[in-house]
Design brief:
Order of helices and strands: HHHHHHHHHHHHHH
Number of strands: 0
Number of helices: 14
Structural class: mainly alpha
Radius of gyration: 27 Å
Strand content: under 5%
Distance between the termini: 49 Å
Helix content: over 70%
Largest sheet: none
Length: 296
């Protein structure tokens, strides 16, 4: 009496297992297709900007950018030649001179401070860390006028140095918070073993902690790079015409030539492609850094 139900259950178990795997694979395939479609939609504006940047102004004014796929003769590099003739190259290098130091300094200073907050005992450590956390909610706008007056006193107003220092100051609170939370997840045994081998705090930081924090450092570097590279507000306030980055240069072109698409489109694409390439190059480290600490 009990054999038949048992046999039928055993016979049906593999079939349900195979069916479950098929459903899982089909669901995974549909998810991948959905994500690919979302990615393609996300890239459409970038593709459109690229096509507009290599079409003549007459063609851009007369038809949509997608028509260039059927009329490739409309494509030309003349827009980029006109862009370089406006002095945009100097704005590009100004952006590099602002973004790279602001990113490197934030990573270096924040990593050392985060290590101290995570693993070095000193009076007032927790209170000082709370102050750093409180600085996260301070908006940039309320510091513009006081910092501008300070820069005028120090005679660095309008310089690249002033823009870099501003970005470093406002990038440090988040950087310290992010790296400190990653550092506290490192096993204490690793640090104790290094101390037993005679390593000091600097050597432990440089040879043990910092290499292990590569995913978090990469995530922080991408965030900081994108924030500084795409910044317009700080550049408008603290950078003069000689030291202006690309964002301010494009903004000035829009003010002077509102319909000058043949200049604005290639400039906007050049300012977009560098962060895009950087993100795709380090996306693996970015995902690892974002997931760090989420699971144990």
């Amino acid at each position: 009496m009990t054999t038949a139900p048992l046999d039928s259950g055993l016979a049906g178990a593999p079939r349900r297992g195979v069916l479950g795997r098929i459903v899982d694979r089909a669901g995974g395939g549909l998810l991948q297709v959905f994500l690919i479609v979302i990615a393609l939609f996300w890239l459409i504006p970038t593709l459109g900007l690229l096509v507009v940047s290599i079409r003549g102004e007459t063609f851009n004014n007369s038809s949509g950018w997608w028509t260039a796929f059927t009329r490739p003769a409309e494509l030309t590099l003349e827009n980029y030649q006109n862009l370089l003739a406006t002095g945009f190259t100097s704005s590009f290098w100004n952006t590099v001179l602002i973004t790279v130091p602001a990113t490197v300094l934030v990573i270096g200073i924040a990593a050392m401070a985060a290590y101290a907050f995570a693993w070095i005992e000193f009076p007032g450590r927790d209170l000082l860390f709370l102050v750093v956390i409180a600085l996260l909610i301070v908006p940039i706008q309320i510091a513009l006028i006081p910092i501008a007056r300070l820069y005028g006193t120090l005679n660095i107003a309008g310089s690249i140095l002033g823009v870099v220092l501003f970005h470093v100051a406002f990038g440090l609170p988040f950087a310290v918070f992010l790296l400190r939370n990653f550092f506290v997840g490192i096993p204490r045994e690793l640090l104790e073993a290094a101390r037993m081998d005679g390593a000091g705090e600097w050597k432990i930081f440089a040879t043990v902690v910092f290499p292990l924090a590569a995913p978090a450092v990469a995530s922080l570097g991408i965030f900081q790079f994108l924030w500084v590279w795409n910044d317009l507000l700080v550049a408008l306030v603290f950078a003069d015409t000689e030291n202006q980055p690309m964002t301010k240069a494009l903004q000035s072109q829009m003010r002077q030539f509102g319909t000058n698409v043949d200049i604005l489109a290639p400039g906007a694409f050049l300012s977009l492609i560098i962060p895009l390439v950087l993100f795709f190059a380090f996306q693996r480290y970015f995902v690892q850094g974002m997931m760090a600490g989420s699971v144990k």
